[in-house]
Design goal:
globular; 9-stranded mixed sheet; alpha/beta; 18% strand
Length: 332
């Protein structure tokens, strides 16, 4: 009986799938001459209004032992020559969020598509969070993303000599580090062989960022949330040298790019004194700096009512776009 069941099963298999013989054609497919690691089809391509296209999850770095590092790219039509680049770095206390969210903006990708329609290539990046990797991994990732984009400028329609960095909260901190540390090797990725100056930008916009960790620690000797300590891997209070390394103000000099700082005066997460401090030090160093302090709003431009939140967010984003046009458009 057992043998008969086997025979029936074999007949069924032949009926369903047919028999394969060595004489039949074998499957064929493309084979490269070496192992491949670059993305072939990195992500969904979407078409927006005004000829803007976006590509999701473009890999910009591969670090052994870590997940792939990606960015979303928003590109205007390429019919009018290379465009300036805007690099967006998301917030989230170095521990949360992602490249498609910011504050109360309901649809950040759609907003970036609007900015692309105004003539910018926009890159919104992911980076390693603070519990994945200790600082300076995050700053190294931001540098890697910018260098990848500049190295692929022709492919993406970018003018690498016109680059702006923008971020909010932890993203403002990391974008600030990128913008103020041009030429400083302390924040270079490991195994870096990028050309000198490829990490430099020509404009910086910071929304309610941390710019001096030493001053922040002094302002909050108790009740700290521990985010910077976790980021730096400190056991308790961080040492002065670690606080200095993580602070954008450490790298400040007169060659830094024009800067716009925006902060709510009632910010309970990152005190407005952080932006006021950076503004004062930039002015003292001779760096072009503008500041917009929005009365009555908290972190993420959150007001006491939805109407206040909307007004503050629109004001900040419009001021940011105008600033980027002012400093990155070719015709001034």
């Amino acid at each position: 009986m057992h043998t008969k069941l086997k025979a029936v099963a074999a007949v069924c298999a032949i009926g369903l799938f047919g028999l394969t013989t060595g004489a039949e054609a074998q499957r064929t497919f493309a084979v490269a001459d070496h192992p491949l690691s670059d993305d072939i089809d990195p992500g969904a391509v979407k078409t927006w209004h005004d000829g803007v296209t976006s590509q999701a999850d473009v890999r910009y770095a591969a670090i052994s032992g870590w997940r792939r590092l990606t960015l979303d790219l928003y590109m205007p039509p390429k019919d009018a020559g290379p465009k300036p680049l805007v690099l967006y770095v998301h917030g989230g206390g170095w521990m949360n969020s992602d490249s498609r969210h910011f504050g109360a903006i309901a649809d950040l990708p759609a907003l970036f598509a609007k900015l692309a329609a105004e003539g910018f290539v926009v890159a919104s990046i992911e980076y390693r969070h603070g519990r994945e990797a200790r600082f300076p991994a995050q700053a190294q990732d931001v540098r890697s993303a910018l260098r990848f984009l500049k190295a692929n400028a022709a492919r993406f329609g970018i003018d690498p000599s016109r680059t702006g960095a923008i971020g909010g909260s932890a993203g403002a901190h990391l974008a600030g580090l990128l913008s103020l540390s041009c030429g400083d090797a302390r924040l270079d990725p490991e195994n870096n062989n990028a050309p000198a100056g490829s990490e430099c930008v020509q404009a910086f916009v910071g929304w309610y960022g941390v710019y001096d960790a030493t001053a922040l620690a002094a302002e909050r000797p108790t009740g700290r949330d521990g985010a910077i300590e976790t980021l730096l891997g400190c056991d308790g209070t961080c040492s002065p040298d670690k606080l200095a390394l993580v602070s954008p103000t450490t790298y400040l000099d007169r060659s830094d790019p024009p800067t716009l700082l925006i902060h709510g005066t009632e910010d309970k997460v990152v005190p407005v004194t952080q932006s006021r401090l950076l503004e004062a030090r930039m002015k003292a160093a001779g760096v072009p700096v503008e500041a917009l302090y929005i009365p009555g709003v908290d972190h993420s431009f959150m007001g006491k009512t939805p109407a206040e939140t909307r007004e503050a967010t629109l004001k900040a984003v419009n001021a940011s776009f105008d600033f980027l046009h002012k400093h990155l458009d070719r015709a001034k």
